[in-house]
Design a protein that fits this description.
CATH architecture of one domain: 3-Layer(aba) Sandwich
Structural class: alpha+beta
Shape: globular
Order of helices and strands: EHEEEHEHHEH
Distance between the termini: 41 Å
Number of strands: 6
Strand order of the largest sheet: 1-4-6-5
CATH topology of one domain: NADH Oxidase
Helix content: 25-40%
CATH class of one domain: Alpha Beta
Number of helices: 5
Radius of gyration: 18 Å
């Protein structure tokens, strides 16, 4: 992988997954919000979309289209390829370095005409209660944990850059010009 890393440490590992069954297994270990699907003590796990059915009432309809302001077009199980990006935490820069590598791979895939999506929610399942199993399955080295997953698939032509785009903060809300 050709990406910059602090001190050229390259503390990363990439697990390329093309097996739909493995991706479905990871996805089924995730909850609606991306965490492990474990109900709170004395309660029920939230249904899809984070809604719980009212007592005695019908279950809410599954969330459609957009969740949290982002298009839900490319899911883990529907991706043609998922690259699990893993890192050590030896240096404070290790996760950042992995982010640079992940973005480089994303841009390269988009240049080749693929759709991409960088997500972190599957890492909760990969590093969670079944981490020994998932780490062995994915070949993640012992001293590392998954920090991101790059999904690569086919672009959904029905989504355009305006209506399918996630909501972004205003430029003035995220940029400060510092002068004396």
């Amino acid at each position: 992988m050709n990406a910059p890393s602090a001190r050229n440490s390259q503390r990363w590992h990439f697990s390329v997954v093309r097996d739909a069954e493995i991706l479905e297994e990871i996805e089924s270990s995730m909850g609606g919000g991306g965490g492990m699907m474990v109900p709170p003590p004395g309660g029920q796990a939230p249904s899809q979309g984070g809604q719980t059915p009212p007592p005695g009432g019908p279950a809410p309809a599954p969330a459609q289209g957009r969740v949290g302001g982002a298009p839900r077009r490319l899911s883990l199980a529907s991706a043609k390829v998922a690259i699990v990006v893993s890192s050590t935490s030896n240096l404070s820069t290790d996760p950042f370095d992995c982010g640079l590598a992940c973005q480089n791979m994303s841009v390269a895939a988009m240049v080749l005409g693929y759709a991409t999506k960088i997500v972190s929610s599957p890492t909760d399942a990969i590093n969670g209660a079944r981490s020994d199993y998932f780490h062995k399955l994915l070949g993640i080295p012992k001293a590392m944990n998954a920090v991101a997953v790059l999904l690569i698939g086919v672009s959904d032509e029905s989504v355009d850059a305006i209506t399918g785009a996630s909501t972004r903060k205003a430029f003035d809300d995220v940029v400060t010009y510092v002068t004396r």
